Model the fold of this input.
Amino acid sequence: MLRPRSSECPMPSSSRRAAARSSRQPAAPQKRIYLFGDGKADGNAKMKDLLGGKGANLAEMAAIGLPVPPGFTITTEMCDAFFRGGNKMPAGLEDETRKSIAFIEKSLGRTFGKGPKALLVSIRSGAAASMPGMMDTVLNLGLNEQTVAALIKETGNTRFVYDSYRRFITMYGDVVMHADRKRFEHEFEALKKARGYKQDTDATAEDLQGLCEKLLRVYRAATGEDFPQDPWQQLETAIEAVFRSWNNPRAIEYRRLNRVVGLRGTAVNVQAMVFGNLDDNSATGVGFTRDPSTGENTFFCDVLFKAQGEDVVAGIRTPLHLDALKAALPKVHAELFKVRDLLERHQRDMQDIEFTIQSGKLYLLQCRNGKRTAKAALKIAIDLVNEKLLTREEALLKIDASSLNQLLHPTFDPRHKAAVLAEGVPASPGAAVGRVVFSSKEAEERAVQGEKVILVRHETSADDIRGMALSEGFLTARGGRTSHAAVVARQMGKVCVSGCGAIEIDEPHQFFSVRGQIVRSGDIISIDGGTGKVMLGEVPRVQPRLDEDFATIMHWADDARTLKVRANADTPADARKAREFGAQGIGLCRTEHMFFDEGRINKMREMILAKSVDGRRRALAKLEPMQREDFFGLFKAMDGLPVTIRLLDPPLHEFLPLDARTQERVAEEIGVQVEEIQAAVSRLHESNPMLGLRGCRLGLLFPEVYEMQARAIAAAALEAVRHGIKALPELMIPLVGHVEELRLMRDLCVAAIKRVQDEQGLCIEIPIGTMIEVPRAALTADKVAEQAEFFSFGTNDLTQMTLGVSRDDAEGGFLVEYVTRGIYPVDPFATIDRDGVGKLMKMGKELGRAARPGLKIGICGEHGGDPESIALCHELGFDYVSCSPYRLPIARLAAAQAALK
Ligand code: PEP
Ligand code: MG
Done:
């Protein structure tokens, strides 16, 4: 038998795992195929895992009596078996396929591959998760010389038959044989041009007959073989091709980007063709039962007369509004509205449907829950509750929590289709447009002139802070979701695309290039921090508006959740924003960010360069009032809510300038020799700074730093109390791995706090807790809990240290490959790695609470704003999650969903 050329389809990792399993287990008898239509429905809507979304819903529609052409679904297990068997049809499938074709033949009184009434079928993919357009389809299968003649005789419509045949040859050549589709399409285009036709429907029967002859020649030239006449061969090879399309590069990439994991493969739906291209009363259409952009309860539907489904997707002609259908076929129009109501009531959600009208009769080919914007999702959820189709709880579960991001930041106008220059890690959401600058200095110069700028760097550092504050967003070639640029961006509410490896920056010559395309300093780019896309020029934006629907959903979510939500916030402005978005406290104030400010960083540098304890104390004394003021501002903004303040964490070298020019400037500003700065830079240099002198290790070596911070916290809290503010400070020690570290730092802080309270004759309780971010701390959490009044899991570091993967380097680099290959199903820095890091969290919680019952436990790593990680925190019985202010609505909804599930 003719074998199509196989595309490179490595066995997917899920199949390899399944292969390992199955080699040990006896094969259970399997039902390979599920029939639907003609009063039969083997499956139902709940069987998406096995039948794919399309197959499950076809069965469901058939079961509720909707007009569905008869057909059958080959299960996703068969796709898995196909890959496991080395891209071979699983045993027994061919026989069962033949029997199932007989079911369709009998239902319709037609014969597959023969006249007088020939049966044609469509072969369509459909996985459990919708992957629109990613996998393959073959329509009009079963056509050959014999059936072409029979259908012409039966319908008397030569044009229709050759129109179907030209489509089939093209699709089969492309999908099954991987011949270049353009070679086929070119022939039709050339024909239209030669005849002066504007539309495909202008072509006559003779034109199309001649075209088919040409296409058969193109097929032969492209494949070296004649077009297959045997319909069973056509069918088997098309089914194989659809299986293989599960692993085509775009499907793999789609699954990676959309975190579609753990599926067995695609199901294959074989269904009798109905023809939207048969005559003037035939059409094809797609629609949403409500407006997917706004959520309005209006039927959002397009039809295309004398066409097949592929034409709508390809945009071959402009589809018509439903009114055109009403004018042409009023009965079908009315029936379609009835179907819309029935489907919505039955599926209890907005549906995306596909249908065909053949000679005035309506057929349903697909329905599924429609994709929608966040705005539409909220409106639809509320409307469905008001219409009594859903309870509040069910409605909450239907909203994609992550999509709420769209509501909080300006977004690029989805109606504008911009060409994507490069793609990086979506590190801080929002849509930024500005002129490219390569240095903080240039950012300042241009910003002063009123220009909007985007800072483009290999990666950012403390020295860039001022320029960063003046930029609309940051684009970095290196670093990930927790890089300096990313963290600062989220803190400042700026947009950030990090780890964009495709851009090659040439700073000296002030340009960057992407595959040879040059972008110079001053050129305008647009960056999308929600998708990681970088586009040339200005892409128009739309501003967010938080409406009543948003408030309603948040209110319902707050009623349903048990986890509290806090914010990672370092400034009063951030804290106010956090409160606005529903924060119930601050879970992490990273105090180092307060030192990076212009006017403070040099004092910090003086402290680092000091040669004695006294020198350090003198420098710290200058910083102390500023710290006090910072903390007072936070307590005021969070009046009545807890504020967790973490003592200094990053390695000190991050505060020192690295380039010679800045070193000279700084030396002059603080009155030291430039050589002293250089000596400090080399003294503090470490090969693995993230495992080096940072966190509580700084506190141990330079106790005066933590002493100063503890004093500032106590003094600010007392000042707040005197102002009538209910300050609830919590002091947190970072990077603890051994209980002794915590004991020493705790004693130091307790003493410092006590001194302030004694001096002021006023007392306020300041619980002292620790971050759990070193695996050893989780493993010995019972010991650690003896010294800690609360735990906060720092899952950025905990992930980095548990996986042994540098958080700053890996995300834009090899980790992408790991995720693509399914070693980690999703980016572990975005979603907690349940099996590893999650296990440590569970252990940490159990040991900690066993030693100290009721121990308060939260999370403050970036995962605190990720719905799946929030679900884990709920399962583990944590008290709160903490995330950046802009992720709070996501956290509130995700926490509610976790509680409801
Ligand atoms: C963490 O490690 O999860 C954390 C919150 O600390 P940082 O990101 O500041 O290291
Ligand atoms: Mg950390």
About this structure: The chain is about 45% helix and 15% strand.
